[in-house]
Write a structure and sequence with these properties.
- 26% of the residues lie in helices and 15% in strands.
- The protein has 13 helices and 15 strands.
- The strands form four sheets. A six-stranded parallel β-sheet has the order 1-7-3-4-6-5, with helices on both faces. Strands 8-14-2-15 form a four-stranded mixed β-sheet, with no helix packed on it. A three-stranded mixed β-sheet has the order 10-11-12.
- The mean pLDDT is 96.
Length: 451
């Protein structure tokens, strides 16, 4: 399970927020994955950049091969934006290896299902931006967009949930929620959702497609072989916006609810399953310097991990929680214990701490992003920094903010989880997953370690 952009600072701050929401000072609280017995660090750099992006990192922890920034499912000989459809450069993934051994597979995300991390499990493109043919219509070389690859080349992925409807519907079609699809819709006129349904019907597979919360909650997942849920035209709503009709009209399930539904479908296979669950909006919130939203997205991810843990058994399920990369948010200053993690810094006497400019400051700030100020730093006195729309301060003006390049944590439990034990290259991760589940190049290793 992946918290996109879930840096160590994000984990610490979310832990404190979780405790404070439950009436505690916060630091003494633990998150669901912090009970996992095995820890390691992951080096996240791309082949060509020190600070990575989610396409290169996703390819690393899905395929076991490091590659370049901005490309998905291809090796580092492919340069971003250079269409080269040759299969010689394509990388297979833990999803492919699992399917080859008869296991079930699924992908759940709060971002678009065609976004960098989820598509790293199934797509092969020279540019992560080629999510639909709106972006590839002028690309020379015959490269397929990501949405088309998902439906046309990956018909055996049993569970798909996230956002991104706009890349699956014709540009002439009306989106059922927004009412418009003309800008990002498919220029080839194909309805990929209908094609997905037709494929399952032709193969006599029980299946269902839904696009809103009501349809989702009316579904009997235990009776399904295949499920497709596309809950937004773009990425799904932030957790703090899910019940705000200004942002979300039709309603969406939570990440924990989607995780429960996915496992319900996949665990019916006696050969086992592989499931990728991404808290994708942690990263998107950080890019906008929205610390409030980023921490609440992390708590939603916490609930999803807890749901997974309650539905699986440590004897036969390897659970891995990590991040693809870090972000530039830091927890700084000297706030007293119990000080609002999202608020202005106060000392143990309850008095505001002031910076050298005699103005208060928050505990959470960013190195880069849209929260940078020009000229005189604004006075935050009286500002509600707990508001979900508050943009935290940053040092360098960039919009969106950049990622950060430091290591991230790997948390693991279950079979072979002890193999996460030191500082690892990020592309080491899928090798452990494959060894534990006896797939890919390790498919003949079962005799050595399976109960």
């Amino acid at each position: 399970m992946l918290g996109d952009g879930m840096s160590m600072t994000t984990v610490t701050s979310a832990r404190i927020l979780k405790g404070q929401l439950n009436g505690k000072t916060g630091e003494e609280t633990i998150l669901s994955w912090e009970t996992f017995p095995n820890l390691a660090l992951s080096k996240t750099y791309n082949q060509d950049y020190t600070t990575p992006d989610s396409a290169g990192t996703g390819t690393a922890f899905m395929s076991g091969v490091k590659t370049n920034k901005g490309v998905i499912g291809v090796d580092a000989s492919v340069h971003r934006g250079h269409c080269n459809p040759s299969p010689a450069h394509e990388l297979s993934t833990i999803l492919d290896w699992s399917l080859a051994e008869g296991k079930s597979v699924g992908i759940v995300t709060t971002a678009r299902i065609t976004h960098a991390t989820p598509s790293s499990a199934y797509a092969h493109v020279a540019d992560r931006g080629w999510e639909g043919d709106h972006y590839t219509q002028h690309v020379v070389g015959g490269c397929k967009d990501i949405a088309l690859q998902l439906v046309e080349d990956n018909p055996n992925i049993q569970v798909l949930m996230g956002g991104g409807r706009r890349f699956f519907l014709p540009y002439t079609a009306q989106d059922p929620e927004s009412g418009s699809n003309t800008h990002y819709g498919r220029r080839d006129g194909r309805d990929l959702i209908k094609e997905w349904e037709n494929d399952k019907t032709a193969r006599n597979m029980s299946h269902k497609y839904v696009w809103n919360s009501k349809q989702f909650h009316q579904t009997n997942f235990s009776q399904l072989d295949y499920f497709l849920g596309l809950f937004d035209s773009s990425s799904m709503a932030y957790e703090l916006d899910r019940f705000d009709t200004h942002y979300e009209v039709a309603g969406e399930p939570s990440l924990a609810e989607m995780t429960e539904a996915a496992i319900t479908i996949l665990q019916k296979n006696p050969k086992g399953f592989f499931l990728l669950v991404e808290g994708g909006k942690i990263d998107l919130a950080h890019h906008g310097n929205h610390a409030v939203k980023a921490l609440h997205e992390t708590l939603a991810f916490n609930d999803a991990v807890a749901k997974m843990d309650s539905m699986t058994n440590d004897r036969d399920t390897l659970a891995v929680v990590t991040a693809d990369h870090s972000h530039t948010m830091v927890l700084a200053g000297y706030p007293a214990r119990g000080n609002d993690i999202l608020g202005l810094i106060k000392n143990s006497a309850g008095k505001l701490e002031l910076a050298k400019d005699h103005k208060p400051l928050t505990s959470l700030i960013y190195g880069t992003g849209p929260g940078a100020w020009s000229g005189i730093r604004p006075d935050l006195t009286g500002v509600n920094t707990d508001d979900k729309e508050y943009v935290s301060e940053s040092a360098i003006p960039l919009n969106p903010s950049t990622h950060a390049g430091e290591d991230v944590v790997i948390y693991a439990k279950g079979p072979m989880s002890h193999l996460f034990h030191t500082t690892h290259e990020q592309n080491y991760i899928p090798h452990v997953l494959a060894f534990a589940s006896c797939v890919g190049e390790y498919k003949n290793s079962c005799v050595d370690h399976m109960p």
